[in-house]
Amino acid sequence: MNPQQFGKVAVLMGGSSAERDVSLRSGQAVLNALISQGVDAFAFDPAERNLFDLKSLQTDRAFIALHGRGGEDGTIQGALEFLGLPYTGSGVLGSALAMDKVRCKELFKARGLSSAEFVVVEQGAQFDSQAIINEFGAVMVKPAHEGSSIGMAKAATASELNEAISNAFRFDDTVMLEKWITGREFTVTMISGVAQPIVEMVTPRGFYDYEAKYQANSTQYYCPAELSQSETENLQLLAQHAFKLVGASGWGRVDAMRDQAGQFYLLEVNTVPGMTEKSLVPMAAKANGMNFSQLVINILEQTL
To answer: In this structure, what are the phi and psi dihedrals at residue 71, rounded to the nearest 5 degrees?
Structure first.
């Protein structure tokens, strides 16, 4: 690897989404890794600088470490294409579709990929909380366009559901109510279209929420996950189908659950997953013999 081949690299981090803090940590880790490999890289926060400054700074390409809206939803990807700058990860369409949980689920359903049942609630629209609980039992409440489990909550009663929906509306005008799955939670990292070793996340909390991801010391990770070879291959194949279906490319992550009967269910596709010290993508890459610096370079090479 010749670091000069990349030219000047902007690591886009921060931004103005609800995931800003995580993005700053991811971006700093990526920046440190690039610099350690001799790449001419610098930090760039779109929330603090005009994106057109990238041209005056003579930037050659961008490593996107922005999470959430504005960075993971196709917005920054479209802007970079307008500027003529190569960038890491998925393009405009793949980013936009993957970020939209509702359209992701509709695509899974249309293609016959296993995913939990769901209903959608729009802000200002009428809905019957008790009827939803009667139909689904417990549900997972998710803002349609957020990541890092922000605004998510489990609801098992009508009153809990009303409270969870009200909180989710603080982050989004559209909220997805997904049938609760009791079982094990997994994630499959995708690098250059290849599924990496599966990670299983185990937390004493109700689910793998924001605190379990970034703050708690009680979360346990198993990589490779304790699955049979056939189960591993089935889940990796399911993840590859989902990743390709939404138009994602380059690198990313596909989250899934396995219920007590052994059935896998797709949750969502992440096109700019976390790259912090607790993140799952570096963990999966390490299990496949790739250290963090090699992972970052591998992702950046996809822009050449």
So the answer is: -125, -25
DSSP state of 14: -
Pick the CATH number of 97-114+182-301 from 3.40.50.10470, 2.170.150.40, 3.30.470.20, 3.10.150.10: 3.30.470.20
Burial of 204 (0-12, 13-18, 19+ CB in 10 A): exposed
CA-closest candidate to residue 275, choices 92, 32, 74: 32
Q: Is 298 annotated as a binding residue?
A: no
pLDDT in tens, 98-138: 999 999 999 999 999 999 999 999 988 888 999 999 999 89
Q: What share of the chain has pLDDT > 90, as a percent?
A: 81
What CATH fold (topology level) applies to the domain 3-88? Answer: Rossmann fold (3.40.50)
Pairing relationship of beta strands 40-44 and 264-270 according to DSSP bridges: unpaired
The residues carrying an active-site annotation are: 19, 148, 279
Cα–Cα distance for residue pair 219/202, rounded to 1 Å: 6
pTM over 0.85: yes
Question: Rounded to the nearest 10 degrees, how much is the dihedral formed by the CA atoms of 158, 159, 162, 167?
Answer: -140
Tell me: is residue 167 an annotated ligand-binding position: no
On whether 255 is known to bind a ligand per the annotation, the reply is: yes
Domain boundaries defined on the chain: 3-88, 97-114+182-301, 118-179
